[in-house]
Design brief:
Dihydrolipoamide Transferase, 17 strands, Rossmann fold, 12 helices, OB fold (Dihydrolipoamide Acetyltransferase, E2P), four-stranded antiparallel beta sheet, 3 domains, alpha/beta
Length: 391
Amino acid sequence: MEEGRIGLIIKKPGEAFRRGETLLEVESDKTTVEVPALQDGVLIEWLVTSDQMVPVESAIARIEIEGEAVAEARKAEAPASNAPVLRSVQRHHVGVSNARPRASTAARVAARRTGIDLSALAGSGRSGRITRADLAAASRPARATYHVETAHGKIFYREWPAHGRQIGTVLLIHGLFADSQSFTTLGRKLSTLGFRAIAVDLPGHGETQSSAETIEDLAAAITASLPPEKLDIVAHSFGAVIGSKLMERARSLTMLSPAGCGEEISGAFVDAMLGVQLDHAFQLLGDSVPLEVQTSLAEHLSTHGRHLRAIASHVSRDGSQMVSILGALANATIPVEAVFMRDDAIIPAHHALNLPFNVAVRVMPGASHMPHWRDPEALANLVAQIARRRG
């Protein structure tokens, strides 16, 4: 590898870090590498931005090491990490001003307690004043995971906080047999555009602990776990069926290869997944799946097979879908978009012809069931366009 793409930037300028703590992630065409701190210090300045391609052994940050100046950090290791290096230099205080950042008293107290540098933050309050909420956002983990306790069980979420000022929250709902990790790239793209992205594991999937099996029960479990604000919902495949039940909580609904819009569905795919015949299932999926994901999916299907089979029985039978969302979509009072893959082998693109007039339809070229894997940037921009049109 001669270059890598800067992925998730975790530490912000002004933040302290400890030896071994991850500062950022670097992506290659095959893997994502976490770049750790070699010793304790403070991040002074990033020399790169998220999504930027940089040559291996490039300097990517200026950092201050506690108690000494270090000329240069380690070179990138190959082939295991092969990530751009961090160059560490002594921090020079030139022309220090007595002026303090505009911040509320509560924000200053929180900053002293957490060690966050207020000068590194952009305030969201009046006249740019830094508020306690800004401190909370700055101290939130860059990729949080958590459970939400509900009467239906513990619902698992994966979160990518907004970069800069937040313009909205996007709820990502995966399809049958998937989980929240399938939205990792799209979640990151949305966060760089100013959205807080939260991806949920449906009951029977991922790390959610809920016995819900019917579509109504799944929708009720997710509804009970949602944050109070209105959401922009992005839902893939079977997730669109759940998303159609949540429109009262939504500002918009973007469906990717949606189920519930026609009769046909690949029974061979459903049977292959339930039978843990993953090679055949992935051929129908139309996209390569990393080996580690295949392994974890096989374990999950074996462990939760009964629950998944019960859920699938409410979705399809013998290659026919058992649920329709067309009526709900026709009555939608929010913007609804549907994105199909032209040569999808699991849910055919001609289902777009069944959609009501109020649903905008887009078709991506390619033989895949995963538009958010094929072009996550285009889909993130689509969500942003919807938000701008809505005002």
